Amino acid sequence: MRKGIRRGRAVLAVTTAAVLCLAGCDALGGGGPEAPGARQSKPAPTPSPSFVWDRSPASIAAVGDSITRGFDACAILTDCPEVSWATGGNAEVNSLAVRLLGARKAATHSWNHAVTGARMADLPAQMARAAADKPQLVTVMVGANDACRATAAAMTPVADFRAAFEDAMRTLRRAAPKTQVYVASVPDLKRLWSQGRTSALGKQVWKLGICPSMLSDADALDGAATLRRDTVHKRVEDYNTVLGEVCAKDPRCRFDGGAVYAYRFGTDQLSHWDWFHPSVNGQARLAEIAYRKVTGATA
Fold first, then answer.
1. CA end-to-end span of the chain, whole Å?
2. Hey, which of 88, 102, 172, 265 would disulfide with 127, CB 3.0 to 4.6 Å?
C-alpha cells in the first residue's frame, strides 16, 4: 500500500514539474515559441508629405536681365517694364502676374528686380532683393548676356555660370525656404540672329553693341563667322543644361524644359527697334509659356 502511495506521489511530482516548465521555460530562454503579444512591434514610420507645386501663387517677384525689363519693346534702347512677360500690366501682353493674380492684385503683389545688362553673376544680389518681398513665386530669366559678350572668348565659363546660379539659389533659400522658382531657358540667340538679319535697320542698331559675339558682321557667312556663332550657340545650350540641372536639385524649382529656347521667334515677336529683344508680341508669347509651365501638372 505504501509503495502505491509513493509511486503516486512520484508521478504527481513529475507531472507538476512538467506543467511548471510549460508555464515558465520560455521566459527563462528555453527557445519555445513566443507567446502572442509578448513583444510589441514598433509602429511603421509615417512618411513625410512630399511637396506639391502650388499652381496658384499669390505673389510674384521677377529677376533677370533686359528681356524681363521689356527692353526695346516700347522705344529704342529703353526699358519698358509695363510690358514685361513676368510682371507687366499691359493688357496685350497679359503677363504671368496678371494671369495668376488678376490685374488689380498684380499691381500690388508683383515686383520686377531684373536689370538690363545683368549676367548670372548678378543674380544672387537680385535674389536677395526678391526674397525681401516674401513672394510665393520667383521667376528667373538670365544668361543671354553671359553669351552676348564682345567676343566669343569673353563669354562666361560654364563652371562660373553654374557656381553663380547655385549661389543665387542658396541666397533665396536662406531667406525664403518655401518660395517656388520658375526658371526660363536662355533663348536661341542664333535663331534671333537669323531672323533679325533680314532687317537693314536692325543690323544698324546691332552695330551699337547689341550681342556682338553673335550679331557682329551679321551678313558674314565665312568659316570664322560661322564658327563664332556656333560657339555661342553651343554655350547657350550648355547654360540651359546648367539651369535644368541646378533647378532639379531643388524640389520647389521648376525649369521650363527648354521651352523658351525652342520657341521659334519670328519677326512679329522681335522688337522693331533692334530686331533682337522680344517685342510686345514676343513678351506675350513668353508669358504664355511661363503660365503653362507654372500651372501645368507637377513634374
1. 92
2. 172
